[in-house]
Design brief:
heterodimer, A: alpha/beta, FAD/NAD(P)-binding domain, Arc Repressor Mutant, subunit A, 5-stranded parallel β-sheet, about 20% strand, B: mainly beta, Rieske Iron-sulfur Protein, 4-stranded antiparallel β-sheet, 3-stranded antiparallel β-sheet, 2 helices, about 40% strand
Chain lengths: ~800, ~120
């Protein structure tokens, strides 16, 4: 008979405990989780990268919905437990669900500490604890207004850096004289303050908050000395308190946290507690490494698999702000029996301090260069006597015993039991062992099998070096395909960073994202140009020289260097006048070939580049505009004759096709977009192999997408059925805008859809009306700047240098 | 070539550096075909035949990056300094001496004449 295990809370600690438990005793318990947050288990350490835009929420999910289903775990999302009945062994949620238990685990975590000052409840005052806080901050950051962060500790500084990245004017208030005084000595605190200020964040120390002022919403923060700092957003990040109310009401022993023994058992033998809410040996913990150790201990206790006990150990602190390297560990207060070794390099912004007692390291503070943190930690843990290497100790491991400064050599020199991943307590031997035994080839494999570097990620470099050491040449670190040789970043990272960092020119992207070449290459420049056009339609000035020749001269280059020209025929419909104008142009410019295209257009081939403006001028007089047959953009909307003529037609497919084309022409997209509208399921316009297609039926419009009929052949997928033309247009426009914002340059819709998943696209475009509307409106906005006929612009003289030679030399006779 | 040699050559004015967009190119028509004159991001000027060694693509129409151009037809990358194909491709195109005096640009015609002869 399986026992019933109920868990209150779905944070990282119980999540990890379940992983161990499922491994040790997979069938012993039937598990039910109550989570007050309405979502799955995610990596809270990574909220700061989400805030700064370096990561998306999807990337920090630890257990997706599928994980719970796979393991038969019942997860109540958004259920807060309001009562524990220890007599009856039941828990009850605020939605009235009652569940009985044999074993209960309390993992209620912590609540942010809110300073009890007037105004603390005003709208606009936030804490920094979960995804809801991050989302609220992101919303507030859109105003680009002023923000105040109260608290200059780890969380406060990460919040400040994130808000600054998002474009806000940020001031950090810290009550102590130096930042992060619990982890840093004053010297490192000072360097940190300088580094933070260098990012444009204002720092005020010894700043004691008196009140938060505002009328109905936050308007500023008032300090004890009367200073008022204006702000529309106030983030309180002054610390956390174990969340113990529920345990207290249930009559469990509670001190600062819920008191547990070294096997995580509370005063009630059926109930355990772990995570930030638990107090063990007089300590409560907030960093992930000890919490994960608690998870391991709790799982062992639940599974009866081993007699594992929790032992206190110091955990290093690292700041997750890109570009600021900081590491602190252990005890670094001055003392009579203590000595210290200090290295300062002001010009490089480096500060290192080791605190020694009896020739053993007891504390480490590193700023600016933290590579040796793991080594110092190892020496401290093992209480190694350092008197032999005292003179060179501070320079790090590479200087000991004549070892070269090659980072690989330093990692090779580490002992097998040296800790690599502090968060998950993974040592070097475990990683190299797993690589060899399981044939692991990349970072993701190592993360999956050992958890090393799977939490905060700061040991990623060390893990990669271990892969390199163990696999040698066989290791290919490029897990993400880089955009091109100019960068190691993939398309998705570049797109996200462009938005997150507000990069608005190609040189800014190359500078900020550390391009390896001075001005890119023919692969990355057109991609960057597209991303910037798409993301900043009203602010970015198109970089003409980063466009492929076809988009520069608005015609298609042919093998002999001549061009072909395709005028737009809306929905494939033309007229006698238009045909006459084309015939005249063909005669006048002796165009050698005229051909009908697959997209229901007329193509004129073999036109000399010099003639292009004159050809366009003549076509323009007949009302033609560019057909964009050369563009990574909307090409054609093919139609059949529909209900106007066809005896089977159910709707006006021609009219809808023309309407879509007139609405969407001129838009740039990651790759070409071809569409079609068929008037009935006989589908004469072949809409079911297009990027986007519509098949009209009696009851409305069936929207199709993600078809292909080129290198790959693929029928479309059905997005859904809508009733009216207006709805069809809105859905199609929103879909294309989603594609514009998310796809990689040159990635057709069907490839993008395969990567993202049809379900996700349906969810965002069909099910979520607000999202659809927002996509639609962003497209409409960008069209304001995109719908300019490039041909008429060039007829009026734009880029005229492009169409004639700079000079003619050596033609003796021709000279006058 | 030495300074004296350069000075003795028959330099022909083709226009001003401002006629060429940075990271761009313009053509000069000659009886032997087009010459592509390039201006890099840092205002260096190079001239090569407007004819890719691969399939004759018009190099002047390519994307200019660093001191190289990518041919618009099949993406060969040609060094503007040496005229040689970079990367795995093999082939080269003739380079033409260019002189920049202030804003004015000159190329050498004799090289053309001798080739024509």
């Amino acid at each position: 008979m399986t026992e019933k295990l109920v868990i209150i809370g779905n944070g990282m600690a119980p999540g990890r405990m379940l992983e161990h438990l499922l491994e040790d005793a997979p069938d012993r318990y039937s598990v039910t989780i109550f989570n007050a947050e309405p979502r799955v288990n995610y990596d809270r350490i990574m909220l700061s990268p989400v805030l700064s835009g370096e990561k998306a929420f999807e990337e920090i999910v630890i257990h997706g919905d599928g994980w719970y289903i796979k393991h038969g775990i019942t997860l109540y999302k958004g259920h807060r437990i309001v009562d524990i009945d220890r007599e009856a062994k039941t828990v009850t949620s605020d939605h009235g669900v009652t569940e009985s238990y044999d074993r209960l685990v309390i993992a209620t975590g912590s609540v942010p500490f809110i300073i009890p000052v007037p105004g603390k409840d005003l709208p606009g005052v936030l804490s920094y604890r979960d995804l809801d806080d991050v989302n609220a901050m992101l919303l507030a950051a859109q105003s680009r207004a002023k923000a105040v962060v109260i608290g200059g500790g780890l969380l406060g500084l990460e919040a400040a850096a994130g808000l600054k990245e998002r474009g806000m004017d940020v001031t950090v208030l810290h009550v102590m004289p130096t930042l992060m005084e619990r982890q840093l000595d004053p010297a490192a605190g000072y360097l940190l303050q300088k580094a933070v200020e260098a990012r444009g964040i204002k720092v005020m120390t010894k700043a004691n908050t008196k009140a938060i002022v505002g009328n109905g919403k936050v308007e500023g923060v008032e300090l004890m000395d009367g200073t008022i700092i204006p702000a529309t957003l106030v983030v309180m990040a002054v610390g956390i308190r174990p969340s113990t109310a529920l345990a207290k009401e249930a009559g469990l022993e509670v001190n600062r946290g819920i008191v547990v023994d070294d096997r995580m058992r509370t005063s009630d033998p059926a109930i355990m507690a772990l995570g930030e809410c638990a107090e063990v040996g007089g300590h409560v913990y907030g960093l992930v490494a000890p919490l994960y150790e608690m998870a391991r201990v709790a799982a062992a206790a639940l599974a009866d698999s081993e007699d594992r006990r929790f032992v206190h150990s110091d955990t290093p602190t690292k700041l997750k702000v890109t570009g600021i390297d900081l590491y602190s560990l252990g005890d670094f207060a001055d003392g009579e029996d203590r000595e210290e070794i200090i290295l300062r390099d002001a010009s490089a912004g480096i500060y290192k301090r080791l605190v020694l007692q009896d020739n053993r390291i007891i504390g480490t503070v590193l700023f600016g260069e933290t590579g040796d943190g793991a080594w110092f930690n190892d020496l401290k843990k093992k209480a190694t006597d350092i008197s032999e290497m005292r003179d060179t100790l501070i320079f790090g491991q590479a200087f000991q015993g004549g070892v070269s400064s090659d980072p690989l050599a330093a990692v090779a020199a580490l002992a097998d039991d040296a800790e690599i991943c502090g968060c998950n307590g993974v040592c070097k031997g475990k990683i190299t062992g797993a690589i060899t035994a399981k044939g692991l080839t990349g970072l993701d494999d190592v993360r999956a099998h050992t958890k090393a570097s799977a939490s905060c990620g700061s040991c990623t470099g060390l893990v990669e070096q271990l892969l390199k050491l163990t696999l040698g040449e066989a290791y290919n670190p490029a897990a993400v395909q880089p955009m091109c040789g100019c960068t190691s970043l993939g398309h998705d990272d570049v797109r996200r960073l462009i938005k997150a960092k507000g990069l608005k020119t190609i040189p800014a992207v190359m500078q900020e994202l550390e391009w390896k070449t001075s001005c890119g290459c023919a692969k990355c420049r057109p991609a960057l140009n597209y991303y910037l056009v798409c993301d900043w339609p009203d602010q970015y000035a198109d970089d003409y020289q980063s466009r492929f020749i076809n988009e520069r001269v608005h015609a298609n280059i042919q093998k002999d260097g001549t061009y072909s020209v395709v005028p737009r025929m809306w929905g494939g419909v033309t007229s006698a006048n238009e045909l006459r104008a084309i015939a005249d142009v063909v005669d006048k410019f002796e165009i050698p070939m005229v051909k009908v295209t697959g997209g229901q257009r007329i193509d004129m081939l073999g036109i000399r580049k010099e003639d292009l403006p004159a050809v366009w001028a003549d076509l323009g007089k007949a009302g033609f505009v560019s057909g964009h047959a050369y563009a990574k953009g909307l090409r054609t909307v093919k139609t059949c004759v529909g209900s106007d003529w066809c005896r089977f037609g159910t709707q006006d497919s021609t009219g809808l096709g023309i309407r879509i084309e007139k609405f969407m022409w001129g838009s740039w997209t990651p790759a070409k977009v071809k569409m079609a509208v068929s008037g009935c399921p006989r589908n004469c316009a072949e809409a079911t192999c297009k990027d986007v297609g519509v098949v009209c039926v009696d009851s409305g419009y069936e929207i199709h997408f993600a078809g292909a009929a080129g290198l790959d052949i693929k029928g479309t997928e059905v997005l859904g059925l809508v009733k009216t033309e207006d709805e069809a247009l809105e859905v199609i426009v929103a879909l294309v805008q989603m594609y514009r914002e998310q796809a990689r340059y040159l990635e057709r819709i069907y490839k993008w859809a395969k990567r993202i998943g049809t379900a996700e696209i349906k969810k965002q475009i069909l099910d979520d009306g607000e999202k659809r509307k927002a996509y639609y409106e962003r497209f409409v906005f960008s069209q304001k700047f995109a719908q300019v006929d490039p041909w008429s612009e060039r007829v009026s003289g734009k880029d005229k240098h492009e169409f004639r030679p700079m000079a003619s030399v050596g033609f003796a006779e021709a000279a006058e | 070539m030495s300074r004296q040699e350069r000075d003795r050559m028959n330099w022909i004015a083709i226009g001003s550096i401002a006629d060429i967009p940075p990271r761009g190119a313009r053509c000069v028509a000659t009886p032997q075909g087009k010459i592509a004159v390039f201006r890099t991001a840092d205002d260096q000027v190079f001239a090569i035949d407007d004819h890719c060694p691969h399939k004759g693509g018009p190099l002047s129409q390519g994307i200019v990056h660093g001191a190289a151009v990518t041919c618009p037809l099949h993406n060969w990358v040609i060094s503007l300094e040496t005229g040689r194909a970079l990367g795995a491709d093999e082939g080269s195109v003739r380079t033409i001496p260019v002189k920049v005096e202030g804003e004015r640009l000159f190329i050498v015609l004799e090289a053309l004449a001798s080739k024509a002869a």
